[in-house]
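Predict both folds.
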Amino acid sequence: MRRRIAISVVASSLTLSLAGCGVLGATGDSADASPTKGNDVTVGLLLPEKANTRYDKFDYPIIKERVSALTKNKGKVQYANADASATRQADQFQQMIDDQVDVILLDAVDAHAIASSVEKAKEAGIPVIAYDRLAEGPIDAYISFDNELVGEVQGRSLLEALGSGIDTSDKIVMMNGSPTDPNAKQFKQGALSELNGKVTIAQSFDTKDWKPENAQANMAEAIEAIGRDNIAAVYAANDGMAGGVIEALEDVGVTKLPPITGQDAELVAVQRIVTGEQFMSVYKSYPQEAEAAAQMAVAKVQGKDIQFDALTRDRVDSPTDKDIPAQLVTVTALTQENIKDTVVADGIYKVSEICTAEYKAACAAIGLK
């Protein structure tokens, strides 16, 4: 993926206005272009898996609500989750083509394998917007977070956690994401750009399907090879796998956990950050990404070209296509210090949800109340 603009690490707010996306002077009204479709829009939404709680908790309901709001409650979302099966997603994709949905938002299980389905949609005249993961094939646009920046933030955070005493001999374990997810490769590249030359990558794994149990098994293998007391830090690409890493370390009696990264700001991960079990997560504003995706989908179907172009001012390349219109959303390093300013301020979680009875003392210790 090529990044054409400089993107800073900033906190995101919940509300995504058109002005916030750089839509200056674009009203989004039908006067912007000749509409190809009215408000009776059907958006097909294909999400990849259920191991990560974000998809059912945030992405689907936010997209559904936003599509309804943009279409005066006349539009709808047809939703399917592939539960990490590329074959199942291909079948779900074909069903949406058969049902003649107006546009498809695709978060691919396997970015390469789904290319033929994207081709079929193009032949059927159905635009496809790659959501969160950059699928191959003739997609019309892409919206995601700046994935290399995610990895850079994770890598920098690990170095900060190791402090001034860091040494090139410090052994790091890398628990990367699924090899079928192009985002995982970009996360890893970003992290390595920060870690290479400063620490030793003692073990590195590409974790099948992002599953925590696979990460736990991989970590057990790493502990056996390196020794439980010789692991300075662990790069875990997301929160689910961070949980698996922690279980593997605790299984062999580690009580003082090394710094461990994550991504997605899942509630259990935020609670682990409160207690210090997990050093950080990458907070990505799912409301911002999901709302923008809904806006892009509706604008594309309704022929509102000014609005669509303003929402997709970045450009990215996939293995099959170049200069794909895109929007890359910023990310934030989530640590004990900024829980209130990020996930709480954005309405993702209430303090009461984080600071349940089990975590009240830890919350009080870091001033979270």
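Second protein follows, with its predicted structure tokens after the sequence.
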Amino acid sequence: MLTIGELASYAGVTVRAVRHYHAKGLLPEPERDHSGYRRYGAGAVVELIRIRTLAGAGVPLARVRELLQADEAEFAAAVADIDERLRAEIRERQRHRERIARLASGDSLALPPEVVEFLDRLRSLGVDERIVEVERDGWIPLAARSPGRIPEWVARKRQQIAEPQLIDFYLTLGRALDRTDDDPRLAELADKLADYITRMADEQGEDYVDDADIEPLFAKLMDALAFDTAPPARRLIELMKERGWTGWTRLERVDPTRAVNDTAARRSHDRRNHGVRASRPPSRP
């Protein structure tokens, strides 16, 4: 006859595990002998090893009792069911591993492969990483909102960046990110970009330069993402508006004369407000 410690040692488990199986009703707990100890026979060793083996295979303890009492056919069916469940768990864990692995791969975490390839192409062309970030941040909500149109949009972007003028624009914009709003080179960049867009619109149609079909409110959200990442982009859009085009995510023709007047009026309003604030005496406590 064995003590609980000897039983645990023979079965390859801990005493705590034996007591746990007692509490779950999986292993009968013997009566104490005249010395006050519980003594276990050889059958308890066999039973405990079976419990340990099933539990170690991932069988929930709630099903272990059922399997211990099952006949051969029932046992085989239950094992097949458990095996299928474990296979499903393995597949799910593999998907988790793939997602975790993607955390280390940057852009591919939230973007489809064709967009990641496009961003890598921009990098290979020497485009400033901040511009690539603007592009990436724009693609993320697009991919989440309209995944079915991503191949179409990426194909158009690939076609557009094959134009040397557009790549030159990307490179020039990257250099402009470190400039102030009044830097004359921003105006030069706006001239080049407006000329390019106008030529493309005249030759290919306006759908060529604005084919994304994005709702205005969603376009404003994406514009805000771009402006947060690259603040000079906001000033560039103002300059572009004075040259007949507006928008970052959605390009639209505008009346440049009206745009100039609107910009002048806004600046005049800002100067007046600033002057009022500057001349206003401090408030009393």
